[in-house]
Design brief:
24 helices, alpha/beta, 7-stranded mixed β-sheet, 8-stranded mixed β-sheet, 726 residues
Length: 726
């Protein structure tokens, strides 16, 4: 058994698909950004519907608050007052999106230390030192309700942070293998951390374009697994102590022995689907000012306590100078605290976005299947059919991706597979174009010497009209042979003989090509041509007849020119005559030969008959003789019947033969009609063996032929006279 070598089309398609798959697996930044941009577009078209009750509220340290309270940082006693009033209002939990890692330098004891070196302030130093610190006030307030403080992962190695407040139960691989990792941590003061119900990491990892699309639920700080601020706010607000993390290898997770990452994080009955690195895709709602209450309203008591009863509360900053602004798919700039708030809202609502583990595999599978289909259609049906199929495939995957997002929150990328499909189409179309141009060049090379230039252009424009390998067609064949060639070539050396043949066949070839014929071959002193292939020609019989008449006319002109030249040189002139045989019939037309060397030619009995008809011109003396099919299909031409049942050399079946003496214009003249009538009378007399009448009709035909026929029939009439004498 032998294996077929794959075609260039298959190799190029495989290379394009292989490159597309490799890029998708490696997922460089441009590819990832392209995928994320379509997810952003989906989110803009259909953002999450926010709960009108807004279960999460933001106490906002905004510009108005800075104007009312003073520049930042405020004394932590102000934060304590805010926490106390939120506790009084019945807030479920309070998460402070600030890093309180150092003692408050505005605390009374700190002020006392600064004042103790100034004698005039000595009376108040003792009083300041006796007051509780601002951090103590905040810690006391934090004990009244669940409060979550922030810890920041840091790239600088530091001592291990204190253990998190949350407990973790894991199933499968250790989540620390997959979640964001930081060498160190900047943690809150021990005095504040002790009464806090939770401590959560405030870090997030924006994409390369600095847009926050995901928020981590877990992170490792100095090797210790921590929840993030939003997850910890959810846990403390629900009164749970433990977060359950399920990773690859856990019950119900199909990982096939691979470490594929985190699958879900569960707090109580709330299950949070995550990306493999433990991040939660954010299904943003539109920014809404109703989420926010200015911090100064809490401090001056002008807020509505009902806005906070039973709600999760976040304390954060939106003031521009505090540098806590982030970009999201829905807004170019939002306070970082809102991202935490939207994450908690999403957790509470269950309206998640997820990118299934099978998404990448499904996209690659679509890419390969659709790419192979388009490549195959280009090869078999052409670029247009492939384009229609490709557009349908792209439309289907785009619609499917949108429906998956809109109905189920699944994130499937339609853009990269579609662009890869476009790359397959463009490469295949380019190959098809190159192949077409190559075919055109090949057709021009193959037929340029044998077919008229307009026909070559037709074939080059549509090479499919040339059926390589052979097909059966009705064709009209022409054989032309030089009379007495051996005698004419006597005394000529090889170079003179070649010049003579070329001078003879150049005008004859041009006539054949000008009449839409195809030159099959030159055979010494003969030429063979055919019509209706490779380009269809409905008037092939008529065009062949016109070519034969023009060839005889050209020979007359050549003989006159040669006679004048010989007369001037005082050399003998030997006229050159040709006999032409025409026949129409079915033939197999195509490439004949071997893969290494072939000719475009015709095969069939009609070819042999045409050759024998050309031989018959020597017997009957008529310059142009046509078979019955040719005479019947060349409607209106001037034909004279020679023989009703001629026995051609080497053929058992008799043939009806006709002398062609002119075209349809001549056939309509009174002179030819008279000649045709007298010729018919001659044929009738010969059949009756009425020699006297036949001789009279021969003489009449000679007289009429001088004006009625451009093709001499004297030799034909001589044949009839010889028959009478015998």
């Amino acid at each position: 058994m032998t294996l077929r070598r794959p075609s260039l089309h298959v190799l190029v398609t495989a290379a394009v698909l292989g490159l597309a798959v490799a890029l998708r697996i490696l997922d460089p930044s441009p590819v990832a950004r392209l995928r994320l941009s379509i997810f952003d577009s989906y989110l803009n078209l259909k953002p999450r519907e926010a709960d009108p009750a807004f279960p999460v509220r933001i106490v906002d340290i905004d510009e108005a608050s800075l104007a009312a309270i003073g520049q930042w940082p405020w004394p932590r006693s102000e934060l304590a007052r805010i926490v106390e009033r939120l506790a009084d209002a019945g807030a479920k939990t309070v998460a402070i999106d600030l890093i309180l890692s150092e003692p408050d330098r505005l605390s009374p004891e700190a002020l006392a230390r600064q004042a103790e070196h100034r004698a005039e302030l000595a009376p108040i130093v003792a009083e300041l030192a006796a007051l509780p610190s601002n951090d103590t006030l905040l810690a006391t307030a934090a004990a009244r309700l669940p409060v979550v403080l922030g810890v920041a992962g840091d790239a600088t190695a530091r001592p291990a942070p204190r253990p998190p407040k949350a407990r973790f139960a894991t199933a499968g691989d250790d989540p620390a293998l997959f979640v964001p990792s930081f060498a160190g941590a900047i943690e809150p003061l021990a005095a504040l951390a002790a009464p806090a119900a939770g401590i959560g990491a405030v870090n997030w990892l924006p994409a390369a374009d600095q847009i926050v699309r995901q928020v981590p639920l877990l992170a490792t700080l100095s090797g210790t697994l921590y929840p993030t601020l939003s997850l910890e706010a959810l846990r403390t607000g629900m009164g749970e102590t433990t977060a359950f993390v399920r990773s690859s290898g856990g019950s119900g997770v199909l990982a096939f022995g691979q470490q594929t990452g985190v699958e879900t994080v569960r707090v109580g009955a709330t299950v949070l689907p995550t990306a493999s690195d433990g991040q939660l895709w954010l299904n943003y709602a539109r920014p809404d000012p109703r989420r926010y209450v200015s911090a100064h309203k809490i401090l001056d008591g002008s807020f509505d306590p009902n806005d906070f009863a039973g709600r999760h509360v976040l304390i954060g900053a939106s003031a521009t100078g505090l540098l806590d602004l982030r970009a999201t798919p829905l807004a170019s700039s939002v306070p970082g605290v809102e991202i935490h708030a939207q994450a908690i809202e999403q957790m509470l609502s269950g309206a998640h976005l997820t990118r299934p583990a099978l998404a990448t595999g499904a996209e690659i599978l679509f890419l390969l299947a659709a790419g192979a289909l388009v490549a195959g259609l280009i090869r078999r049906l052409g670029p247009l059919a492939a384009a229609l199929a490709g557009v349908a495939a792209i439309a289907a995957v785009a619609l499917g991706s949108w429906l998956a997002f809109a109905e189920s929150g699944y994130l499937f990328d339609p853009v990269y597979p579609s662009l890869s499909l476009l790359a397959v189409y463009l490469s295949g179309s380019l190959l098809s174009f190159i192949r077409t141009e190559t075919d055109r060049a090949r057709v021009k090379r193959a037929f340029g010497h044998y077919v008229a230039a307009p026909l070559v252009e037709e074939l080059a424009a549509d090479p499919t009209r040339l059926k390589l390998g052979g097909e059966t067609r009705e064709v009209t064949l022409l054989f032309a042979d030089v009379r007495g060639f051996s005698r004419l070539s006597e005394g000529m050396d090889a170079e003179t003989l070649i010049r003579f043949v070329n001078r003879l066949f150049t005008p004859l070839s041009e006539i054949i090509l000008d009449h839409r014929g195809t030159i099959d071959k030159f055979m010494g002193d003969a030429v063979m041509a055919f019509w209706n292939a490779p380009v269809p020609d409905r008037d092939h019989a008529a065009n062949a007849c016109r070519a034969a008449l023009a060839m005889q006319k050209a020979m007359d002109r050549l003989n006159r020119e040669e006679a004048a030249r010989c007369a001037a040189a005082a050399t003998p002139h030997h006229p050159v005559r040709i006999g032409i045989g025409l026949n129409t019939g079915p033939c197999c037309v195509g490439n004949v030969g071997s893969p290494q060397r072939f000719d475009y030619s015709v095969l069939g009995d009609a070819v042999n008959v045409a050759s024998r008809i050309e031989d018959a011109t020597k017997i009957y003396g008529a310059p142009i003789i046509a078979g019955e099919r040719t005479a019947r299909e060349a409607v209106g031409f001037a034909f004279l019947e020679i023989e009703t049942a001629a026995r051609l050399r080497g053929k058992d079946r008799p043939e009806r033969l006709f002398a062609l003496v002119g075209d349809n214009t001549l056939a309509a003249t009174p002179d030819f009609k008279a000649l045709s009538a007298r010729y018919a009378a001659l044929r009738a007399a010969l059949e009756r063996r009425d020699t006297a009448t036949a001789a009279s009709e021969i003489a009449a035909c000679r007289t009429l032929a001088r004006t009625a026929s451009p093709v001499s029939i004297d030799a034909l009439l001589d044949t009839y006279e010889a028959a009478l004498r015998s």
